[in-house]
Amino acid sequence: MMIMSETEEKRFVMPGEEIAPLEEYLPGDGAYEEDGVVYSEYAGFLTLDTMEKIARVEPVKQTGALHKGDIIYGTITSIRSMMAVVEALEIEGRAREIAGSTNGTLHISKMSTRYVSDVERVFRLGDTIRAVVVSGTPSLQLSTARADLGVVLALCRKCRKPMIKKGKVLYCEDCELTDSRPVSTRYAQYVLTVPEK
Amino acid sequence: MSNDVLSDIKRMHIMTLLESGKRIDGRGFEERRKIELMPNFVPRAEGSARLKLGDTDVLAGIKMDIGTPFPDTPDSGVMTTNAELIPMASPFFESGPPRPEAIELSRVVDRGIRESQTVDMGKLCITPGEEVWIMFIDIHTLDYDGNLFDAASLAALAALKGTTVPAAKFGKGEDYALPVEHLPIASTFVKIGDKILLDPNYEEQQVANARLTITFDENGDLRAMQKGIGGGFTSEEVKYMMEVAKRTSREVMDELF
Amino acid sequence: MGGHSDIVLIDKNGIRLDGRKADELRPIKIEAGVLKRADGSAYVVWGNNMVLAAVYGPREAHPRHVQNSNRAIVQAKYNMAAFSVGDRKRPGPDRRSVEISKIISEALEAVTMTELFPRATIDVYMEVLQANAGTRCAAITAASVAMADAGIPMRGLVTGCAAGKAGDKVILDLGQEEDNFGQADVPLAIVPRTGEVVLLQMDGHLTQEEFDEAFRLATEAAVNVVYPLQVEALKRKYAGSTEDIEEGITNGGLANSVINETPSEVNADEIVEELASREEKVALEDMDDGKQGGEQ
Q1: Does the residue C52 lie in any domain?
Q2: How do the pLDDT tens digits run along chain C, 296 residues long?
Q3: For A11-59, CATH number?
């Protein structure tokens, strides 16, 4: 988003509204060109970047399309030698269903800030993870290489109940089983996203 | 935005808050959400009411027709209740024939009204054994933010209270107000961990272990109950909920009717 | 359409049953962003029609065989509440609502940038809460505002309006009796920016000249009156709009509109001013006269 001077106000535009001739501005995010004219894709706020000569429209609401930097909650659905497959379930801070494929991949090189020799030492099937989107298209690529990312909830191998974090290990109160693997600093924490009208 | 896979972590989040005495929307455990009633919302129906319980939004409409009575109740009108969980209201409601959730909702609303004899069905008889009024209560769920039982029951009651029997249109004398004689008020609770909450919102309902709906009338007598979801309640918990339901249903009655 | 009746639909002064002139719309009120759970929503009161629209998506399309690997699909569903019409309607889709759902889906898909969301669906739900002739035009008008409210990328809004013939006169926006006892109905939807007609139906009997006149009335009213109300609804919701409707027209990119032959006699400002006072009156009249409702 651009920082606007106080006098400059963002114009509210409609889908299909003419923004500028193509000679003056190129269509950026939220804008498209047709027959030499730049139009808005959204009901939203127009910013004309006079330096770069780009017209952008920020929609009134973001859809559930995933973009680089979005944080998602997901679950590990498959483990391979060099990667884990993740089903993305929710976008943190945005009450929208994910638009498009929810099937993401997490490559072994992007699992941790440290070297990972074996995927199974970090993730298990059914783990709930918090991950950042590396790229949303053409396929969903994720990363958990940050202290606040990674496993946020693991289930007990035996009884499938959520395990709690006890010191540095995961512990099942019912089965008294422990599991020692790296987890997110936000283990058992969750940011509830409630839709707004 | 829900998902069974995330319900464990959601439950932990909500329970942690509850341990410190907080609900996710800041309410007290025995506090209902704000009720907004828009009576006679659909003027073309014989009766109607739109009711918002927080952000749960339902529209109840009453239509009247003439038909034949059931053989075992020849001098009594007929009432039927139908609730539609339309996909507009939630990403998890689907079009198509009513699912068990919608049928349960219809029946809970129906039971509250029927068992409390809210409407004097005897006064809906035209010719015993031959002609009676058929009263259709239809509930349209517009926006789902939890606790449809209470919202739909209240909307149906409010709609009935404003209903005109369209006798003139059918050549059966003058129109008259539907005889509404009782005020059954439903109160729904959920249990999350060991905490009991009145009027659960969407997120609370999603992670609840057990649910109980208790319907009291204006005399403080019980008229209907419905327990739901896998978990259970202790008898002390049931007693506690009765007490809260009795007290708060009186408040709702005074506020709305 | 085509029912027989002695009812006088238009008097000798050219005034219609509800007091409108031939080229006058019923009062219209549009509100954007009215539901919490839906991704986008809108509410339209059009005369005695009340329609709520909600949008979900783009989201993964289920079952998988309905997915298109190159673009999103738009699945609109038009539904009438059981109590929305004179005689109770059995809940659930009938052949009429399935047909309307199909043509509205196609009309909305025509303006949606579906190529941005392969394999996804954009679901649009329209609920008719009260019906009084012209629900499909009110529904698509609401649907397109709900889509904009959901942040769906589109090449333009879609605006619905109908015209037809009753009492041997071509008239705008048929009311219930005009629909029941009139001679023709032409519901349509247009993209005001391009002038593209994305929904068009006709039933009854018209000469080609009468059709041209009906088409002109409906498209002009859609572009000059209904569209600005759609724009205004979104502005009110998001831009704290205090701008008047005329401003909305200029900003709405209407410079390119195909409608430029005859200026419309329908004045947006008048309609808006009348709204508040008439709405109440209409509701009261409606209760008193016991009109039998509903296009079935």
Answers
A1: yes
A2: 655 667 899 999 999 999 999 999 999 999 999 999 999 999 999 999 999 999 999 999 988 899 999 999 999 999 999 999 999 999 999 999 999 999 999 999 999 999 999 999 999 999 999 999 999 999 999 999 999 999 999 999 999 999 999 999 999 999 999 999 999 999 999 999 999 999 999 999 999 999 999 999 999 999 999 999 999 999 999 998 654 443 333 333 333 333 333 333 344 444 444 443 433 333 333 333 333 334 43
A3: 2.40.50.100
User: Tokens 């209240």 map to which residue?
Assistant: B154
Helix orientation angle between C227-238 and C268-289, rounded to the nearest 10 degrees: 100
- 3-state DSSP assignment of residue C233: helix
Specify the CATH number for the domain of residue B174.
3.30.230.70
C neighbours by CB contacts (3+ pairs under 8 Å): A, B
Does C11 reside within a domain?
Answer: no
What is the chain B residue with the closest CA to C282? B43
Say whether C229 sits in a helix, a strand or coil. helix
Closest partner residue to C125 (CB to CB) among B86, B96, B166 is: B86
Report CB contact under 8 Å: C59, A99.
yes
Instruction: Pick C37's closest partner by Cβ from B42, B65, B90.
Output: B90
Shortest CB distance from B145 goes to which of C36, C82, C129? C36
User: pTM for the complete prediction?
Assistant: 0.89
Split into its structural domains, chain B has a count of 1
Helix, strand or coil, per DSSP, at residue A18: strand
C-alpha to C-alpha distance for C51 and C160, rounded to whole angstroms: 13
Span(s) in chain A for CATH 2.40.50.100: 11-59
What CATH fold (topology level) applies to the domain A71-153? OB fold (Dihydrolipoamide Acetyltransferase, E2P) (2.40.50)
Contact residues on chain A for B12, CB-CB shorter than 8 A: 153, 162, 188, 190
Domain of C122, in residue numbers = 28-267
In C, minimum Cα distance to A63 occurs at C151
Task: Find chain A residues with C-beta within 8 A of C143's C-beta.
Answer: none
Give B161-226 as a 3 state SS string. Answer: HCCEECCHHHCCCCCEECCECCCCEEEEEEEECCEEEECCCHHHHHHCCEEEEEEECCCCCEEEEE
**What ipTM was predicted for this assembly?**
0.94
Q: Is C258's Cβ below 8 Å from some Cβ in A?
A: no
Selecting from B42, B145, B202 the residue whose C-beta is nearest the C-beta of C129 gives B42
pLDDT in tens, A129-139: 999 999 998 89
Residue C127 tokens, joined: 């609920």
For residue B42, give every residue at least 6 positions away whose Cβ sits within 8 Å of its Cβ, in sequence order, or none.
B48, B59, B61, C50, C81, C83, C84, C129, C130
- 8 Å CB contact of A12 and C235: yes
- CATH 2.40.50.140 maps onto chain A at 71-153
Number of domains in chain C: 1
Partner-chain contact B45 C83, CB within 8 Å: yes
- Closest approach of B204 to chain A, Cα-based (Å): 11
